[in-house]
Amino acid sequence: MTNIDLGRPVQGDVVDLILDDHRRFEALLRDLRDSSQDRDAVRRAFATLHVAHAEAEERHVYPKLERKNAVDDHEAEHGIEEHAEGNEALLAVLELKGTDTQAFEDAVEELARVVNHHLTEEELTILNPAREGVGPQVRAELGALFAQERNAQVDADCGRIENVRRIVESARERGLLDDEGDDEGDDEGDDEN
Fold first, then answer.
1. Which of 12, 17, 37, 153 is deepest in the core (most CB within 10 A)?
2. Residue boundaries of the structural domains of the chain
């Protein structure tokens, strides 16, 4: 577990709760880049928040937004793929022994690249449609479900390296991760849609 405050929401508009976490990710990434910080504690906090946030979105938010036709299945699936890429980049950071090496800084740079890309895309293609296509009552109900799942994941210490390894392996088995290299996954015509 971590002593870094990850927040503990219990209710609210799901869009606001997700955006609050996005700002936490950005702050934690800044701290990961800062050599004067306890980078080991920060990476553990980041891992916990990343896994808890992604699990809560995938279990509750994305499916409900799809059912409400606020997002299509392609957007939701793409969000899940980006969570998998984030977990893969996170695992690379967690597996490094030291936090004062060039390898650590390179791994943090890749993690920041992957996560920042996802935050931007999710805010544009999932959260904006959720604001416009889903009423406040549903967003509040979703907020409670998101917060409950997120907090349960945090309480279960979901950011443990063994758990992140298991999640990444599961994503590989489900074909969510492109082992050929990240650049190829960005081609427009790489799926059946």
1. 17
2. 14-179
